[in-house]
From TrEMBL:
Keywords: Apoplast, Copper, Glycoprotein, Lignin degradation, Metal-binding, Oxidoreductase, Repeat, Secreted, Signal. This is Laccase. It comes from Setaria italica. Lignin degradation and detoxification of lignin-derived products. The keyword DNA-binding does not apply. It holds the Pfam family Cu-oxidase. The keyword Transferase does not apply. Its cofactor is Cu cation.
């Protein structure tokens, strides 16, 4: 494995040299996905990784480059890789969403992904997009500007900060348990760049911490990625502040903050100046969660260190300051943090469509279905029901036999999916009534739901507006919603129930942020708008893993436009179609 990644990085260096002289380069890697034993907290655990690395290898590209990744599957499970946030303009076949755009690569099989990264600058990432494997099969995609210039002072160095989780439960087993409505499993710890940090120990021996080495006065570009399955995180560094300059590979109007808040699926580019008295400073990442009566998971934290050059390991005898973090149940700092996001306007490219062709209002919540296909069962989280997650009272059914894109392309979608995803909730209620959190009588009538594959079709070039409403139905989680193949404008967010009469007035048409993932606040709403300009079949889902597994997902079909340049091309010559066993053909 070492050899492969070494060869890949030498190749990469050669290719970057090309890119520097201004030509679009081909960035080529081989990703071998395999099992490995890793020891943390005195326990050897089997993990799924790429090229022996956790986090996996970083893809370094320049805006305009082509990426070619040869995926070799040495796992006993099927796998796909999704290039999270990459626009994939007219390359839906390379999106890597399991059973949506392709059937997974069989054990022992392989596949080549080929796509352009164009018109995007900043941080994206890649991850497995089948079952829960993305908890350890993931890595950064760093996209640098063609001319090397940023709309902010050039940093001395950039450093990915991958927030993750350390799981000892087998991830395929975790998926099986989530599908069965069980979401009570926890990771053991949070991680920063794969390190659990010194707050975790086994028999008093602390775990290794992530260390950021800095020189006084220099500026660092921290590239945050939240790869965690379950939690939004707060992140701080004692004695330092941040300037947030980008998110999801789009620039933001810079704003100052002393805390970064990031939800699963999001990325954020953040400048930090090493302007404190030279010394050691703790950095802390803490997961937040809604307070009881919502179901509680273990408090998750990882701690690292900022180390100024030349400072002794004992900090010259002085205590190492640690940042003061909000309480894990305080979700309001997340809401206010997100209120500060505006896009750095590029008037030509980034004009918000003034008209709306399709308007959707989508509720996000939980529900339940009867176990074993029964018609009637005891509700309120009894063992006769399976808890599922829904969008507009539809729980996405994860079939494992076909690719929705292939069937759409072949015109054989009938019988597999229907195109009637509802534009609004079928049964309006007080979405944010906290009494809906179990166990009470109120939710009983709203709780029953159905599993189905109901997708939504859009004409090419239509302007789509969606208001996502997080509900309190059985729980009050926020929902980081991620759309494949498109970036969208985030027009506004609010708490409580969305009220079209007064809330539309808050929409920012002037300089909204442009994102591929948006954190819809806890018992609140977020409004987005985008142009459906990328023909194909695109997954839309919550990036909390238990929510997606439980069905908080759907897919958007974007029709072909009038010309070849506005249509989805046929699958690439080496594209491996679905076989009869639910894996791609060899
Ligand atoms: C991991 O450890 C188990 C138990 O010791 C062993 O059977 C297995 O072969 C190891 N796997 C790898 C990939 O080294
Ligand atoms: C990919 O799969 C093909 C067909 O099974 C095989 O011939 C080839 O050797 C494989 N390539 C790699 C790199 O594993
Ligand atoms: C070690 O991990 C296994 C799962 O891989 C788990 O069953 C066991 O309880 C763990 N042991 C300890 C001491 O944490
Ligand atoms: C080890 O962890 C335990 C429980 O998390 C904690 O109480 C203890 O202080 C830690 N010990 C050290 C030496 O860090
Ligand atoms: C911006 O963030 C600050 C600090 O968290 C907060 O007080 C303020 O309300 C935020 N602004 C908006 C518009 O939400
Ligand atoms: C369901 O729960 C009831 C009451 O808690 C218990 O008696 C019964 O054995 C359970 N059934 C199954 C199939 O677990
Ligand atoms: C909805 O529920 C919230 C929270 O319980 C409550 O404050 C609000 O008054 C309710 N709204 C309506 C229209 O009943
Ligand atoms: C969902 O639909 C079912 C009927 O299939 C209905 O009983 C239930 O009340 C609906 N729930 C919501 C939240 O709309
Ligand atoms: C897309 O729509 C815009 C505005 O509605 C229009 O100006 C443009 O010509 C359309 N493009 C295509 C390729 O249909
Ligand atoms: Cu969710």
């Amino acid at each position: 494995m070492g050899k492969i990644s070494m060869a890949a990085s030498i190749l990469w260096l050669a290719l970057v040299a090309l890119a520097v002289v201004g030509e679009a380069a081909i960035v080529e890697h081989t990703f071998v996905v395999h099992e490995m034993n890793m020891t943390h907290l005195c326990n050897s655990t089997k993990v799924y990784v790429v090229n022996g690395q956790l986090p996996g290898p970083q893809l370094d590209v320049v805006d305009g480059d082509t990426v070619v990744v040869h995926l070799v599957n040495e796992l006993p499970h099927g796998v796909t890789i999704h290039w999270h946030g990459v626009r994939q303009l007219r390359s839906c076949w390379a999106d890597g969403a399991g059973y949506v755009t392709e059937c997974p690569v069989a054990p022992g099989g392989n596949r080549t992904y080929r796509f352009d990264v164009s018109g995007q600058v900043g941080t994206l990432w890649w991850h497995a997009h089948v079952t829960c494997l993305r908890a350890s099969v993931h890595g950064a995609i760093v996209v640098r500007p063609k001319d090397g210039r940023y709309p902010f002072p050039t940093p001395a160095r950039d450093v990915p900060i991958v927030i993750g989780e350390w799981w000892t439960l087998d991830l395929v087993e975790l998926d099986r348990r989530n599908l069965d409505g069980n979401f009570e499993d926890d990771p053991l710890s949070a991680t920063l760049n794969g390190k659990l940090g010194d707050l975790s120990n086994c028999s008093g021996v602390p775990e290794e911490s992530f260390v950021l080495d800095v020189e006084p006065g220099k500026t660092y570009l921290l590239r945050f990625i939240n790869t965690a399955l379950f939690s939004e995180y707060f992140f701080k560094v004692a004695g330092h502040t941040f300037t947030v300059v980008g998110a999801d590979a789009n620039y933001l109007t810079p704003f100052r903050t002393d805390m970064v808040t990031i939800s699963p699926g999001e990325t954020m580019d953040v400048l930090m100046v090493a302007d404190a008295p030279p010394g050691l400073y703790h950095m802390t990442a803490v997961a937040n969660q809604p307070p009881p009566p919502d179901l509680q998971i273990r408090a998750l934290t990882s701690r690292g260190l900022v180390r100024y050059a030349g400072v002794r390991a004992d900090n010259g005898g002085a205590p190492v300051p640690a940042p003061l973090m909000p309480g894990q149940h305080d979700t309001m700092p997340s809401y206010y943090f997100r209120g500060n996001f505006t896009g750095l306007a590029f008037p030509s490219r980034h004009r918000v469509p003034a008209h709306v062709d399709e308007r959707l209002f989508v509720t996000l919540g939980l529900g339940s279905i009867c176990r074993g296909g029964k018609k009637d069962c005891k509700l309120r989280r009894s063992n006769e029901t399976i808890t599922v997650a829904t969008m507009n009272n539809v729980s996405f059914h994860h079939q494992t036999a076909a690719s929705l894109l292939e069937r759409h392309y072949d015109g054989t979608g009938e019988g597999l999916y229907t195109e009637d995803f509802p534009d609004r909730p079928p049964r309006p209620y007080n979405y944010t009534n906290m009494d809906l959190i179990p166990v009470g009588p109120l939710e009983e009538v709203l709780e029953p739901t159905t599993k189905a594959i109901r997708v939504r079709r859009f004409k090419y070039n239509s302007s789509v507006e969606i208001v996502f409403q997080s509900t309190a139905l059985l729980q009050s989680d926020p929902n980081p919603m991620h759309l494949h193949g498109h970036d969208f404008f985030v027009l506004a967010q609010g708490l409580g129930n969305f009220d079209p009469k007064k809330d539309v007035k808050k929409f920012n048409y002037h300089n909204p942020q442009i994102r591929n993932t948006v954190h819809v606040p806890r018992v609140g709403w977020t409004a987005i708008r985008f142009i459906a300009d990328n023909p194909g079949m695109w997954y839309l889902h919550c990036h909390f893993e238990f929510h997606i597994v439980m069905g908080m997902a759907t897919a958007f079909i974007v029709e072909d436009g009038p010309t070849p340049e506005t249509s989805l091309p046929p699958p690439p010559a080496d594209f491996k179609r679905c076989g009869t066993n639910g894996f791609s053909k060899p």
